[in-house]
């Protein structure tokens, strides 16, 4: 396994995004299957594990805490606060809350569920725009001072917000979606990360399953699958996007790698500060993903990929109106909008 750097941590060049085990893509997998995936990742050399208070409303953190506790000293554990489940009279609901008191509470809850005394990398999951970023990051810096957190990260923020936050406390990592079909970080965030020495952690690196072997059956998606609310998976846009696949799949075959490996390899070639965190519920997919580190792409292959799938050829925005309003990222004009 190759390695890359997040602040003081040397981590596997490909980490594991753990959300899929408990959240967002339909019914969560069984605890036994989740454990098998996590242990397989450890066996394969993965040392970066990424979770959040929101995922499964705490269930994902509990799973990682139970399975990874014996290996705590050999891994880098990342979690997120500022967006979590809150109990209301009519049920548990997702709430974005970046107030200092909420972040302190989120952190304490995460420490308990993760069965650890300290979180290596603690992200602000979403910037609560009703709270100055300086106040939220200041409260997180207090968690570092208290020894509850080692380094800080931000998720889904713009270059300007990153710089404002970094002026309060060093930001070790910025996490947002980045893949061949989501190029928004190329507008300004990647340059800011390089300037500040901030690692860039890329989630959804295989385009939420689009850049994998199997063609998605949209009609068969679980009712709670988040792709149902994403414009790129709406019927007309999806049919247009399918037109990108034949040439892409042909290139993967030509290079002797899987489509997922090609997507991840493209990311690894974008810069040494970029660390993809694909998620999966299956061990075979996990091992396939990790094989991307062995795929070498030359200038000609990179040029072909960049020309095939980019912000001008993909149809549909990455988020619907509500989700788009909750993030703070620079946005390209997308074809079909």
Keyword list:
single chain; 337 residues; alpha/beta; TIM Barrel; 8-stranded parallel beta sheet; two-stranded antiparallel sheet; 36% helix
Characterise this structure.
The chain has 337 residues and is of the alpha/beta class. The chain has one domain (10-326): NADP-dependent oxidoreductase domain (TIM Barrel), CATH 3.20.20. The chain is built from twelve helices and twelve strands. Strands 3-4-5-8-9-10-11-12 form an eight-stranded parallel sheet. It has a two-stranded antiparallel sheet with strand order 1-2. A hairpin with a 2-residue loop joins strand 6 (83-88) and strand 7 (91-96). Helix 2 (59-68) packs across helix 3 (100-114). The protein is globular and about 50 Å long.
Please provide a brief summary of the model.
The protein is of the alpha/beta class and 337 residues long. It is 36% helix and 18% strand. The chain has helices spanning 31-43, 59-68, 100-114, 133-145, 159-168, 189-196, 235-242, 245-255, 259-268, 283-290, 299-308, 321-326, and strands at residues 3-6, 9-12, 16-17, 48-50, 76-81, 83-88, 91-96, 119-124, 149-155, 171-177, 199-203, 274-276.
Give the H and E element order.
Answer: EEEHEHEEEHEHEHEHEHHHEHHH
Structural class: alpha/beta
Q: At CATH's second level, what is the architecture? A: Alpha-Beta Barrel
Question: Main beta sheet: strand number and arrangement?
Answer: 8 strands, parallel
How many distinct beta strands? Answer: 12
Strand coverage percent: 15-25%
- The CATH superfamily is identified as NADP-dependent oxidoreductase domain
Task: Label the overall shape.
Answer: globular
- Classify the fold: give the CATH topology: TIM Barrel
* Main sheet strand line-up: 3-4-5-8-9-10-11-12
Number of helices: 12
Question: How many separate structural domains?
Answer: 1
Oligomer: single chain
Distance between the termini: 41 Å
CATH class: Alpha Beta
The rounded Rg comes to 19 Å
Low-confidence stretches: none
Q: What value does the average pLDDT take?
A: 96
Fraction of helical residues:
25-40%
